[in-house]
Amino acid sequence: MKKENNIPKEKVGVIGLGYVGIPLIREFFNKGFTLVGFDIDQQKVEKLNNGESYLMHIPSQTISDWVESGRFSATLDFSELKEVDAILVCVPTPLNEHREPDLSFVEKTTKEIAANLRKGHLIVLESTTYPGTTAEVMLPILEKSGLKVGEDFSLAYSPEREDPGNKEYTTGKIPKVVGGHTPGCGERAAALYSHIVEVVSVSSTRAAEAVKILENTYRAINIALVNELKMLFDRMDIDVWEVIEAAGSKPFGFQSFYPGPGLGGHCIPIDPFYLTWKAKEYDFNTRFIELAGEINTYQPYYVVQRVTEVLNRHEKSLNGSKILLVGVAYKKDVDDMRESPALKIYDLLDEKGAKIEYYDPCVPEMRGFRKFPRLKKKSIVYSPDKIAEYDLLLLITDHSDLPYDEILENAKLIVDTRNAFKQTSPKIFKS
């Protein structure tokens, strides 16, 4: 990469302006790069070009500074890909209704890149996916252009490791795994990323893809273990959080994982299923991973079961009861609802006739996305008197700034899925 006065000369394009793409742009911008953001969402593009942020953890002033500098713009026009040197792909990779990989966003994006591919381009996929995607899905589309990988353009994979809301480990502090389709492709991608972060190079795109799958499958399996123990310990009248806290005092051989109402976010609920799907191509059944998936997928049903039990103890039926969901983001202190267990819990409660509202200071509007397209609600305006109106409060997401003491004082009953209420009270029931 050529430099003059330490200013990078390569122009970087980022496709997908969400929770991965925007923080990535921030890191490259801070190192002096010129960037173009690409997306198919006109509202996102307009907001960015007006200096507005739509992510809670990225201030609008940051976006405004980008635009005013003249080193950043957002566009719907993918023909501008011809003008950039490196193309970083950060598009969604969800599961379909059969829990199989949906690579439609990757495929459509790759076709746009192929239509604008030129010699010298570096293309890096960052979206989480199964081992083989870069070489088996992207490369054939790109080479239909007539250009050859390793000769005319470079192709690599570098998994995103974004953790929204984590103030300690921001994008620039998390090492970047990079694997190229050829050694030269890997070297070029590593050279680019080395400007913003420590790089860990691996031998291939397939190895890099497997790294991301391993990281999140590891977490999914350990969360499934504590979720299963939570259900067992509930029957045994043992507090699973007390047990985990005590076990965590061991300075070796144990890492604390915590139970919850179900998995959420764009990685842990999805990535293991990508691997189990790919494993079938090799006549291999990933029984351990699939069992963990079953346990974690069951958790919203278990939460609703606990809500029903608690109401019954107090001579109330779930049908017709007024229930307030407290916190609906997939994790604390973020505004991200992707794959949030709150969506499934809401749907199950609704099916059983509960009257449901929600309160979340981070999520002013609750949307059901593709799985629950008709779900669209606005958060209630919080007040102690309002809290007292509900038959039961169901704590799903333990945001730091929730007024826990005041909620406990005014609520009739609380089912706590996160051990957020530390007090002992006859109102509080763990799930």
Walkthrough of the structure:
The protein has an 8-stranded mixed beta sheet with strand order 5-4-3-6-7-8-9-10, sandwiched between helices. The chain contains 13 helices and 17 strands. The protein has 2 domains: 201 residues, Rossmann fold, CATH 3.40.50.720; 212 residues, Rossmann fold, CATH 3.40.50. Helices cover 37% and strands 15% of the residues. It is an alpha/beta fold and 431 residues long. The N terminus is likely disordered.
- Structural class category: alpha/beta
Order of helices and strands: EEEHEHHEEHEHEEHEHHHHEHEEEHEHEE
CATH class of the largest domain: Alpha Beta
- Named CATH architecture of the largest domain: 3-Layer(aba) Sandwich
Distance between the termini: 54 Å
Q: How many beta strands in the DSSP annotation?
A: 17
Largest sheet, if any?
Answer: 8 strands, mixed
Strand order of the largest sheet: 5-4-3-6-7-8-9-10
Specify the CATH homologous superfamily of the largest domain.
Answer: NAD(P)-binding Rossmann-like Domain
CATH topology of the largest domain: Rossmann fold
Tell me the helix content: 25-40%
| Poorly predicted parts | 1-5
Question: How large is the radius of gyration?
Answer: 23 Å
**Separate helix tally:** 13
**How many structurally independent domains?**
2
Short summary:
The chain is of the alpha/beta class and 431 residues long. The protein is built from 13 helices and 17 strands. The protein is 37% helix and 15% strand.
Question: Any chance you could write out the topology, listing elements then pairs?
Answer:
Elements: E1 3-4, E2 7-8, E3 11-15, H1 21-30, E4 34-38, H2 42-49, H3 60-69, E5 72-75, E6 86-89, H4 104-115, E7 122-125, H5 133-143, E8 154-157, E9 176-180, H6 183-193, E10 199-202, H7 205-235, H8 240-247, H9 271-279, H10 287-313, E11 322-326, H11 341-351, E12 355-359, E13 365-367, E14 376-378, H12 384-387, E15 392-395, H13 404-410, E16 414-416, E17 428-430
Parallel strand pairs: 3-4, 3-6, 4-5, 6-7, 7-8, 9-10, 11-12, 11-15, 15-16, 16-17
Antiparallel strand pairs: 1-2, 8-9, 13-14
Helix pairs in contact: 4-5, 7-9, 7-10, 10-11
